[in-house]
Amino acid sequence: MSSTALRLDPVALRARLADPDAIPRDRPSPEDDLERAARSGGRLVPAAVLVPLVLRDDPTVLLTLRSAKLSSHAGQVSFPGGRTEAGETPEQTALREASEEVGLDPALPEVLGRLPPLLTGTGFVVTPVVSLLRPPFTLHSDPAEVEEAFEYPLSCLLDPAAPERRQQEFRGRMREFWVWPHERHYIWGATASMLVTLSSVLRGRV
Prior knowledge:
26% helix; CoAse; 8-stranded mixed beta sheet; NUDIX_hydrolase-like_dom_sf; alpha+beta; 3-stranded antiparallel beta sheet; Nucleoside Triphosphate Pyrophosphohydrolase; Nudix_hydrolase; metal-binding; 206 residues
């Protein structure tokens, strides 16, 4: 078993994820969150994503490239997920959306816990639901929502030097954000931030 695979001990991960409020968030300061809420008109929409850690010999994390036809976050790298329906828990939302978007059987992921919620600039309050996913499994992406499902090596995710901190002016302010290296896709924004937090959890830096 690789050293990377040893990071995926379910008992240890459940313990680290047991209290999402105790996990340091990567980013937004309270001021950033207030500004994001103001940009959305104060209308915050609960949502959840599934963060599947794939238990291969060399483990990976499952990501998607969103369809360019979508009304929000089009063409961006994300986790399977979407807005929460009435009466749903974040776990139910994440599993349902993963089934709808990439055809993942909801019975397959072993849910371990949650990362801290993240407020996006479009007014979504997103709860990442971390799970273990054991091969074999079959995916069938919905082309209306997902252009491609792909896997990102956990060995790269565990490298604290891998993500690059970048700056760009937006709405008159200089913004900082993370970008993760990939040969084909630009992994940034909320997804990159979630990956930074996940990396800390996996490395036991909670």
